[in-house]
Write the structure tokens for this entry.
Amino acid sequence: MEEVIVYTTPSCPWCHKTKTYLKEKGISFGEKDVADDSGAAQEMIELTGQRSVPVIKKGGQYVVGFDPERLENMLH
């Protein structure tokens, strides 16, 4: 299975909801803090064209924002 990456910031409530959702679903993921890592921030912007978090990436697919339905579709 391709790795799931979550682009986050520490103060983002939707990021926390996303990580909780993934943990509850048993999905392992890596986390990139775009507030602390300018390279990760640039990567996220190039991927989505946006600066909002969370961004959840799996392979060539991504979801911007906490959207359980789209996450479910992307992850399975």
